[in-house]
Amino acid sequence: MRPVAAALSVSFAVASLVSVAGLAPSVAHAETQAEACIDKVSTVRTWFRGTVPPITMDDRLKLEDGIRVAVETCEAALATTPDDPKLALTLAYAAISAEEHDRAVDLMQQAAEAEYPPAMLAYARLLGRGQYVDRDAEGAWEMLLGALKGGDEAVKIEAALEFLPGGAGPESPKRVRKTFETMIAEGSPEAMITYAMRVLKIAQEGASDEAVQQGLDLLREAADEHGSSNAMVTLGLIHLQGRLVTADRALAKSYIMRAAEAEDPRAFTAMGQIYQSEQDFEEALKWFQKGADKGDAFAQFMLGFIHMSGVGVPQDMEMAVEWWETARWNGSRQAGSYLKVHRERNQ
Question: Which end of the chain, N or C, is less packed with Cβ atoms under 10 Å?
Fold first, then answer.
């Protein structure tokens, strides 16, 4: 297998898992293989996300072994159900991580031509950017339209964003607006959040007052009318920071606590940030621990940071490194960066 360093910037899209309950044994076995394939590729994706070059030999070996297992698992799954476009696409992502680009393109094209929306979106990105294939703007446009027509909510959102400047499709603000307006009218909270943050760019400098107000209204609708914990955390952080609205710590806590009651790990971590900003390190530690126990990589990184700094707890670099290692393999690039600095200092 070739070195993995060149693959660190690859973006993976992992299909959702399928339940096998109640299926006949042979079908259940095929579904179990499919789930294993998706799980292995998802793991590799997470590992790459938290990897900061230059990587150590131990990291390199772990990554290469993970890639090998992902490829072999997906090959076995696809051999059982060779016409499954989801598996073809997932194996394509594994092949990209292994730098088998021609094979990945063939698999992705096969899945896209089967009109599998996530594959159509992924293949459109390759065509639109000329990555691993000759650039084909018209082909990318056709694939994106197919993804918009047949995709689930997440695929439609991602496909619509490709029509923004810098995307894989031809720039078309009208198409972006129409797609999101339709999804918002249908009550999609994720479309509301994405439109507010990505299309209206309310968190960026220079956003107009009108755009900010429209974005905030959409976030409130997603949180208050549709119960989106994602929107609650986003609004909580906005009210905590006080850049788009007047800072209101009580309202920030109110929104984030609602998300915490829904067991959203991001909310646990956000509560930790609030208490940390209030210098209540004991309470902050409790909330970061809750987030870390739920697998939130940022909470795990923050626990490492707290143990490094010795604020609220005895300073313990060994514990800090342990938490950073956990966070890094859970996809935290910040933890990867801190580990890199720690290694360099020790050297």
Answer: C
Q: Kindly write down the DSSP assignment for every residue of 197-238, as one continuous string.
A: IIIS-TTSTT--HHHHHHHHHHHHIIIIIT--HHHHHHHHHH
The residue among 272, 266, 308 whose CA lies nearest residue 289 is 272
Exposure string over 121-149, b if 16+ CB within 10 A, otherwise e: bbbbbbbbeeeebeebeebbbbbbebbbe
Please write the tens of the pLDDT for every residue from 246-259.
Answer: 999 999 999 999 99
CA gap 90, 78 in Å, rounded: 10
Closest CA to 6 of 101, 108, 125: 101
Burial grade of 79 (CB within 10 A; 0-12, 13-18, 19 or more): exposed
Please name which of 289, 344, 301, 291 lies closest in space to residue 326, comparing C-alpha atoms.
301
* Predicted model pTM: 0.86
Of 257, 258, 298, whose CA–CA distance to 275 is shortest?
257
**CB neighbours of residue 164 within 10 Å:** 16
Asked if the model's pLDDT at residue 33 lies above 90, the reply is yes
Only one residue has tokens 């795990």, namely 300
- The pLDDT value given to residue 194: 98
Dist CA 164 CA 132 (whole Å): 22
Secondary element (H or E) of residue 167: none
Q: What is the pLDDT of residue 3?
A: 45
Short-list 101, 141, 153, 93, CA closest to 119: 93
